[in-house]
Design brief:
Elements lengths: L2 E2 H6 L9 H10 L4 E6 L12 E3 L4 H9 L4 E5 L7 H22 L3 E6 L10 H13 L6 E5 L7 E4 L2 E6 L2 E4 L18 H8 L9 E4 L1 H17 L5 E5 L4 H16 L4 E5 L1 H7 L10 H8 L5 E5 L4 H10 L5 E6 L7 H18 L4 E6 L13 H17 L7 E5 L1 H11 L4 E9 L2 E5 L10 E5 L8 H11 L1
């Protein structure tokens, strides 16, 4: 069911202003907490800039996080690509270490479990583990779990507890999109109340869920948000409705007011809230001249496309029409037989090193999605086999590109860490809405070059093509 965006937005109360930017800035200045984001794939950095990013989390790394000057730090866990037991272990280990170092250094913390704005991921497992670990290993009592899935840069809004995806001038309930049919993390309802009940298998019922409406935010303001949050106990779920950044600013101010009174929360969030909670200022999109400061000139690029969603396929097809592209298709059918897979990987490795001597090389997975039921494989197993194959291919690239673009969350993490050896770096900014750039560190295969992470569910039909045009032809 498509709904007219203007009709819905025009029926909302006017945004609450009343010096919200000034009030929020002042409140954040008194907030001494370290904001640590556990990101289940690398795409959550898509709203921030000049922020440290880690892919390891030993005690030395956690101490470094608490002692560095940045209020906000990301730890990329990649849990969306791994099994339940390992996801539980990773979240518990990181949380315990954060608590230990916080106590040792004397700096308080807040943990945000950042996940997909289209509601896919290990929920409620990750926040359950974080909440339980905090209560068991620290003196904190977790009063509530905040769910804020709006991601405005990609057209995701929560209104009336319904989570929407924007398409042209329409809003579509998420349950009516391909994302809700995900073979691993699918769901039935766009109503976040029903989503919570479904995902918790009925453990949480309607009276265990609190909703902060847009009316609360825009008419009642931060004071109303504070009133609601101060009544929450027993780790109740808290749905945050928001249709623009101003709504999140008002909510965050009310949150800080409630926390000042001793309330404690954990968070399941998309990327927009992270930016506001940490007080990250707006920054213009990066231009070719910004990238050239890293690489001097831009001629040879390497693009890797792993995401299989419809939007990515459309973007890939537009890109492949460019005459300067050297295309290499990895046939995903080959993963079903070990000998065939090995031959396919070797073929692609040879092709890439031919392409990289020329100009723009694109390695992409064939677009036909494997039906895991037909092959007695889980959806996650298939995804990991494909991703590990791409890693094996990229490891053998002999020519340093001027930039790398990777399409897809799981793919971008595996290439970043397993193929290139990334451990720690800085988010430079975004090249377009929701598309961040990391600078590869000295420890990596290609130090100093820009690594562009392009989420599978972000952008328009020509977005991938436009990034290439900005970097190479502008």
């Amino acid at each position: 069911m498509r709904l007219r965006k203007n009709k819905i937005f025009n029926n909302l109360p006017k945004s609450f202003k009343n010096n919200i930017d000034k009030l929020l800035k002042e409140a954040l200045s008194y907030d001494g907490k370290k904001i640590i984001v556990l990101d289940d794939d690398p795409t959550g950095i898509q709203t921030v800039h000049d922020v440290p990013v880690y892919t390891s989390y030993d005690l030395k790394d956690i101490r470094d996080i608490f002692l560095n000057s940045s209020k906000l730090t990301f730890i990329l866990t990649n849990t969306r690509a791994i099994c339940i037991n390992e996801t539980k272990r990773i979240n518990e280990v990181i949380c315990r270490r954060i608590i230990e170092v916080s106590r040792e250094i004397g700096i308080d913390f807040e943990i945000i479990s950042r996940s997909d704005s289209t509601l896919r991921g290990h929920y409620p497992l990750e926040t359950d583990v974080l909440g339980t670990t905090i209560e068991q290993k620290s003196d904190k009592k977790v009063d509530g779990e905040v769910l804020t899935f709006s991601f405005f840069e990609a057209g995701r809004y929560t209104i009336g507890d319904i989570h929407y995806l924007e398409n042209a001038d329409s809003l579509i309930p998420l349950s009516e999109t391909e994302f809700a049919k995900d073979s691993i993390f699918g769901y039935n309802s766009s109503d976040l109340r029903q989503y919570i009940i479904e995902k918790t298998n009925g453990k949480y019922r309607d009276n265990d869920i609190v909703s902060i409406s847009i009316k609360d935010i825009r008419i009642g303001g931060a004071k109303r948000v504070e009133e609601i949050l101060t009544t929450v106990v027993g780790r109740k779920k808290i749905i945050v409705n928001s249709a623009n950044y101003n709504d999140l600013k008002v909510f965050t101010l009310g949150l800080l007011m409630a926390e000042k009174k001793g309330k404690n929360f954990i968070f399941r969030s998309a990327a927009s809230f992270v930016k506001i909670r940490a007080g990250i200022k707006d920054k213009n999109h990066l231009k070719k001249t910004d990238i050239e400061k890293l690489t001097n000139e831009i001629k040879k690029g390497f693009i890797i496309v792993g995401s299989y969603v419809k939007k990515t396929t459309t973007q890939l097809n537009k890109l492949l029409r460019l005459k300067s592209i050297y295309p290499i298709e990895f046939n995903v059918q080959k993963i079903l037989k070990k000998s065939s897979l090995k031959n396919e990987i070797v073929r692609c490795q040879k092709e890439i090193n031919i392409g990289m001597r020329k100009s723009l090389t694109v390695l992409y997975t064939s677009r036909k999605v494997l039906n895991f039921r037909d092959h007695q494989l889980s959806g996650m197993k298939i995804s990991n086999l494909i991703s590990s194959s791409l890693v094996d291919i990229v490891k053998e690239v002999k020519y340093k590109p001027d930039f790398i673009i990777v399409k897809g969350g799981i793919t971008s993490f595996d290439i970043l860490v397993k193929a290139l050896g990334f451990k720690k770096g800085l988010v430079l900014g975004q090249i377009m809405e929701g598309v961040p750039i990391l600078v590869l560190g000295k420890e990596t295969k290609f130090p100093g070059i820009p690594y562009i992470i392009f989420p599978g569910n972000v952008g328009y039909e020509d977005s991938l093509k436009r990034i290439i045009e900005v970097l190479v032809t502008s």
